Description:
The structure holds 2 protein chains of 2 kinds. Chain A has one domain: Ferritin (Up-down Bundle), CATH 1.20.1260. Chain A contains 5 helices and no strands. By secondary structure, chain A is mainly α. Chain B is α/β, with parallel strands linked by helices. Chain B folds into 4 domains: 3-94, no CATH class; 103-174 and 373-584, 3-Layer(aba) Sandwich (Rossmann fold); 176-368 and 611-632, Dimethylsulfoxide Reductase, domain 2 (3-Layer(aba) Sandwich), CATH 3.40.228; 651-787, Barwin-like endoglucanases. Chain B has 27 helices and 29 strands. In chain B, strands 7-6-18-17-16-8-9 form a 7-stranded mixed β-sheet, with helices on both faces. The longest helix of chain B is centred in the first third of the chain and has 18 residues, at 115-132. The model of chain B has no long low-confidence stretch (mean pLDDT 97). Chain A binds chain B through residues 30-33, 36-37, 39-41, 43, 86-89, 91-92, 141-142, 144-145, 147-149, 151-152, 154-156, 159-160, and chain B through 133-134, 136-137, 165, 415-417, 419, 422-423, 426-427, 429-432, 610, 612-616, 639, 642, 755-757, 759.
Amino acid sequence: MKLGLAIEELHRSENHLARVLMEVSDRHKVDHEVFYVARDIAGWSQRHVAELARVGQDYGMDLDPEPVGEPGLLARLQRTTSDLLGRRPDPGLLLLADLRHVHREAAGVSLDWELLAQAAQGARQRELLALAERLHPDTLRQMRWANAKLKESATQALVS
Amino acid sequence: MPRIDRIAEPWGTRTPYGPGETWPVRVDTHLADGVGADDVDRWVQSATILHSNGDGLDIAVKDGRIVGVRGRADDRVNHGRLGPKDLFGWQANNSPDRLTRPLVRRNGELVETDWDTAMDAVAGRCRELLDEQGPSAISFYTTGQLFLEEYYTLGLIAHGGIGTNHVDGNTRLCTATAAAALKETFASDGQPGSYTDIDHADVIALYGHNMAETQTVLWTRILDRLAGPNPPAIVCVDPRETPVARAATVHLAPRPGTNVMLMNALLHEVIGNGWVDRRYVEAHTVGFKELEKRVRDYPPEVAAEVCDVPVERIREAARLIGTAERLLSTVLQGFYQSHQATAAAVQVNNINVVRGMLGRPGCGILQMNGQPTAQNTRECGADGDLPGFRNWSNDSHVQDLARVWNVDPMDIPHYSPPTHAMQMFRYAEEGSIRFMWVTATNPAVSMPELRRIREILAQERLFLVVQDIFLSETAQLADVVLPAATWGEKTGTFTNVDRTVHLSEKAVEPPGEARPDLDILVDFASRLGLRDKDGAPLVKWTDPEAAFEGWKECSRGRPCDYTGLSYDKLRERNGIQWPCTDEHPDGTEHIYVDGQFWAAPDYCESYGRDLVTGAPLEPAEYKALNPTGRAVLKAAEYLPPHEIPGQDFPFQLITGRTLYHFHTRTKTARAPQLQAAAPEVWVEMSPSDAADRGWGEGDLLEVATPRGRVTARLRVSGIRPGVLFLPFHYGYWDEPGGQRPDGASGRAANELTLTDWDPASKQPVFKTAAAQVTRLEVSTGAPAPAPTTTGSRPVDDAVPPTRGGADAQVDEAVATGGAR
């Protein structure tokens, strides 16, 4: 059984997604909705990390329940840069690239959840399956956010 | 006829009545000093314009001037009553500092010019940018204070003619969440309640809604029920001790930013105790299981901790709401302008829906508006939505609109949600919006984080047009200022919260060269040469009645159907509720009767959004969720506010309003009685917070956040500990700074607020900012300049009460023998 490996992989990819969302948030501090929503939904991935670490114990995995911390100095730098570039149009294009990146990362996490759910079902691991069913929708919402925000921002960024 | 000081007694004389009875008539009249009713040349039919209640009134005219107002006894909304703002606010029309000529900026100064020059400058710059960049450079920021005909014309010009997606109103700051919450639950805007529900309800729950100050006449109706036999129980959710809180059976004063937590706990109790209309839920809703599951995580004990509200009071409120036989729920800024606005307002809908309390007398929801014509901004598409509650993500709706307008569907921008106001300012900040036309609103005082807003508006590269009746703070920053006519000086219709349409007729000529807003917009369209697809003028009307007829066609078959209305009909009987059609010629008191909604996928206005991320649902998702058009019970998780108090900024700052002022005081500060009642900004703090610091009533304080500073005198009031309150009305036009603080510390509350908004409704958050406060000066005995009659009532009995005196005497004629 490689369930432990699947959990570990998801733990890693959720940690990564949380960090990507925090970085995107910092880079777009002057786009206030991106700044706040990206942080709010990074929180979902951070919560997933803790839950995966907890359930991982049942499968012999020793995973850190604490999500990987915010890179303090870098975050501050990125926010300052965002402020400095606030009066220029170029960050609009950067935002599109960043949202595309978030969507791709979230899609990867979503597939990891699919894998875990399939495995849990096959192995009749009810608790693990319930966890996947409970948390996977958050990932889909993260994807939809990136998609919707991209659609909403594209026209002004590309046609102006 | 009895006379009464209506500054001291804002709600006037009681006329008690019982459940199911007709609210007695009481006709309120105020005329200029020395003018008697017999001296009046003409009474001209209209309705109130300084709040959202839509009270019918007649404007008194003498020698070509407005000399007063009188409530209309036959109006369904007010039965003759008027509020203080209506009784005294009309004087602003006659103010000597009205704008009377267009202004253009020359060498940095605004100078007078003629209409041709001003309009050529506006249309010329617009055309230049359209040629150079296209519609993405052009934006319109309107209001909740124009008339229906003007909004519809503006929406047509912007969406159908110019093809820009950048259209919004200041309704974004006030009622965007009302619309959003209705769209989430019922998939369409449209008020499920009616004011007459107050006559029948046995429980009235007011969520973040200080009705006593925002809709004084509606509150008068409740006060008269409370004074009569079998009065309703009142549930109040508000962190301040407002007049509503004082009248409440149960008052919950949650920590700002925790509304969703509280609502989920109330739903936890309602569902957990089985106070659910199972038959209704099964027949008419989707989403109950998910809601039931979600609120299981929110027992009252948890909410009591997070919201800092006694657990037994949550239970008591839930019991009243859960066992009500006729439940009326109302919601306003305490929810709309707070954290998780839409999610919280939607939970109020959920309560009425799971209890089956809709579509019959006494059972309703009033997702309130703040401004008089906000409903029309929403209906007519001046808030960015498509007119007639058409769905921008439904191609057949766009095609239908293109048919009505005779334009190509591709000309109507619908590739993404409309650009909301906060995003428009962001695009102006980054430089991609280069033309902004502001009509009848004052973002330089009303928007959050004013230093930023002023910087955006003052940019050289932004061409700013301001259409107003006074030289507001925003107008002072404009490139072109267009002087407009206002209420009483032009004809048009507007619609209140409970779908009541009033005709407001022109009573007097506007001052100087000021022109009706409709004339200005039609002139602009003609100068720009906007055409339909056959080459005919896009805007096919030049007067209000023809615009109204155009709108009627646009509304045909949509929820807000006006086709049964006409100017003539409204002249005969003013105040008719839409939908009004040939089948329902007298209008419609209750919508959603028998669980019939406008939520079918091919008909609905909106597919809804994710309440946390704001992402719109795709058409296919909605069809799968709600194929047969039921009410949607949408659950929401609680998220902590984005700015929470800490060591440096230990208080939570909320901003709000007072009974005596409207918006940024442009009119009410020019009515002497209103201005005297609330002459200057103040800050409220709880007795325990003041005592901890040894501060007292009238001390001069400085409130600061990371964004700015405001100086104000302290009113020790009944607000909950840990929270500061500032009224948002006060700006700088009557101060030396003109449009900005004169020095480092200002008096506009929005110097302090943060730039953050609800992702679903896009309404800015005005009610959770972390703040610090210091004392600058000890009071020499004078109290804070805050009213004593309202939510700012002092705890100190020694503060002299607010009085209007001789100038504030109002005639009140109570109909005899009418009540019971």
